[in-house]
Amino acid sequence: MPQYCSVPGCRNSGGHKFPEERELQLKWRVVIKRRDTTTKGLWKPGKHDVVCAAHFKDADYRVSGLLAASSRCCPFIVFVWESSTPRSSKYSRRDDVDSSVVNNVQPEVEVGNEAEVKQECDDLGGIEPMHQEMGVQCTILGRFSIENLVNDPKRIQYYTSFRDYDHFMLFFNCLGPAVNELNYQCLSLTPKDQLFMCLMKLRQNKEDLELSFLFEVSESTVSKIVITWINFMYFQLKEINIWPSRDIVTDYMPDDFKYKFATTRVILDATETPIQKPSHVDAQSVTWSSYKHKNTIKTMIGCTPRGTVSYVSDAYGGSASDRQIIEKSELLQLNLNLFEQKDSIMADRGIMVQDLFAAQDVKVNTPTMLKGKSQLEPEEVGDRRVASKRIHIERVIGLAKTFKILKNELPSSKLILGSRIVFCVFFYCKFQKVHCE
């Protein structure tokens, strides 16, 4: 079955498959300007999708008629509805004939072929509806904007993680009037759309090139907007105290938790984000994670028994231990009075920091290794309960990992923003529902 050209409005069959190289394929996608009918984002080709030869220049071809393997050629697009003048292609030029020959041709139609000609004309009449249908399927829309998704909560959640437009605006309003006074001003985009762009970067890890196409700005503008807003959100959100009081933790504590671990103030666990391998040898060593077997940055995360994010540490190189991160954290700063006497912390078995919190009269509950034991001691039964309740922090971290910027390798250019990106993403999780019992 012939494969039709992927360019909107073009019905040629056959052509060249999209390149496998990610960057070059993205350039092709941007050039053809085709939107996904479901997400309204940039359309993604399948392995059999093609762009026909009419959208390439003669210089892109070898003598054999194949695309030059070493070239970085991209299609050029002239859409059929942009001009009534037929475009010249490498095929049409082959059919050029002398005008004097054309003038000598007499228009004749044999009577016997009249029915056949009428049928052909009827068939041609279907071309216009076909183009109209293609126009509906592959409409080239205007600039992407959050205002176009006011009544589309599904897409808002897909691009931003917020469940609908009202929750997006709730977060936007939390940032205050300073959104209009940022150091970098982009006059072509409203502050709401700049936030929308930044959230798309964090949530779906969109390439700057793709975002520049969707929002009709340059790649450099995209980069400046993303960096500006990550810094701005970090400093604004840091002003909000996310560490709840003892009374609030107790009031919202699940009944089962209250019965077994009533003194729990926070559940701690570490999470790692993969990063692009640094070029400097020392940086490679500092960021190498023996647990993940790759270069990472590592952060300590805390949540309440209810599953609400209550603590996010700075990010450190993947070689840092859990103990080292806690030693440098605010959790041990007595002047902050984060804990009260008889509070307890729930943590993974690898977080051995009981001695660090002894000065605050805070207990650290960690499960011991139970593997291989046929019978459990009474205290080991409690350890198993600790392990079962730690799943709350794992769910919170799993929710944050739905932001693709934390799952894919963080490029070196964004590494300096690592701590701020992680903090912002986990703050967004406070707007999500985590099922905890």
Automatic annotation (TrEMBL):
Coiled coil (UniProt feature)? none
What are the entry keywords? DNA-binding, Metal-binding, Zinc, Zinc-finger
Domain called THAP-type: residue spans:
1-78
Show the SUPFAM superfamilies listed in the entry. Answer: Glucocorticoid receptor-like (DNA-binding domain) (SSF57716)
**Requisite cofactors:** a divalent metal cation
Q: Where are the transmembrane segments?
A: none
Which GO-annotated molecular functions does the record name? Answer: DNA binding; zinc ion binding
Q: This protein is called what?
A: THAP-type domain-containing protein
